[in-house]
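PROTEIN DATA CARD
Card holder: dTTP/UTP pyrophosphatase
Chain length: 198
Origin: Parendozoicomonas haliclonae
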Amino acid sequence: MQYLYLASRSPRRRELLQQAGIPFRLIDIEVDESVLEDEAAADYVERLARDKARAGVASQGEAAQSAPVLAADTTVAEGTHILGKPETPAEAVDMLMHLSGREHTVYTGIAMALGDRLESRVVATRVCFASFRRADAERYVATGEPMDKAGAYGIQGFGGVLVERIEGSYSNVVGLPVYETATLAAEFGVACWQTETL
Ligand SMILES: Cc1cn([C@H]2C[C@H](O)[C@@H](COP(=O)(O)OP(=O)(O)OP(=O)(O)O)O2)c(=O)[nH]c1=O
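Structure generated from the sequence above:
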């Protein structure tokens, strides 16, 4: 059976891979997620996805030779600002107010590695936020949803209420662009739409 290793702790990425019918086993890795000075958001997510995939291969040793490792990283960018995961509820409210009534871009880097082979892509989606008041942002943050999410919102949850429109891939905003991931997986010999699970 064709499958891959998913180097991710994100439940959203698991669901999106399941949606594509790509069987996977989970592996746990740790990488430094700091942004480099003057690093553009697209470069940042691609670098991190590549680091995570490489870390996945290193952690698997011999076993990783049998199936490719997939990793991803998602971030939100508004102009030159990179908005990662908020560290406090107050920071989440500030991030949301920064995005209110504006357009921003969500970037996801995806990388796949097998032995010495490493390939990656970056997918961008434009997201247009409605204008809302600080009291609304505070009420949304009080739901607890924004805290583990880049840009302090989840389009797939309560945060969908804040989104007027998007241009590009929806699954990319959630954390794993399904079309591009399936294409990359196919290049490594792992097909989508498999009905058997591991
Ligand atoms: C903008 C947005 C982000 N997010 C999430 C996707 C990512 O999981 C998270 C960004 O953090 P990431 O660092 O990309 O991923 P992660 O730490 O959750 O998982 P791992 O590194 O182990 O793979 O924000 C949403 O769920 N919905 C959204 O609308």
